[in-house]
Amino acid sequence: MNIYISGLSYSINDTDLNELFTEYGEVSSARVINDRETGRSRGFGFVEMPNDEDGQKAIDELNGAEYDSKVISVSVARPKTEHPSSGGNRSRGNNGGGFRRNNGGNFGRNNGGGFGRY
After folding, report:
1. What is the percentage of the chain residues whose pLDDT exceeds 90?
2. How far apart are CA 23 and CA 25, in angstroms?
3. What's the pTM value of the predicted model, to 2 decimals?
4. What is the pLDDT of residues 43-69, one digit of tens each?
5. Of 36, 38, 56, 39, whose CA–CA distance to 47 is shortest?
6. Mean pLDDT of the chain
């Protein structure tokens, strides 16, 4: 069972997460997600537990619990969804929409486009 944990303190690391979930059963992996640029924790992580019953018990008992002075949310991880139109990357520019100016914003002239063309 793949488990998603959010609301983690930024000081929590993979070992801490592993130790927390080992109390409920065998842990295959435990990973806190870090920011690529800063290397700092993003405040969430994933734990993989091979036994679904152990995983569900951990979810039931840890969801809403206080851990390292923060209340954490624990749930079954949902599969990552792909966005086919963007290929998984987020665009940072104007994707269209809004008004576009032709030829420096001269809307009323017949200059090969724009709003004033009849």
Report:
1. 66
2. 6
3. 0.68
4. 999 999 999 999 999 999 999 999 999
5. 56
6. 82
Tracing tokens 């152990």 back to the chain, one arrives at 54
CB 77: neighbour CB atoms within 10 A? Answer: 13
Q: Which residues of 10-35 are buried (b: 16+ CB within 10 A; e: fewer)?
A: eebeeebbbebbeebbebeebebeee
Task: Return the closest-CA partner of residue 45 out of 27, 62, 31, 24.
Answer: 31
Q: Minimal CA–CA distance to 45: which of 24, 70, 72?
A: 72
Contacts of 71 (CB under 8 A, 6+ apart): 7, 64, 65
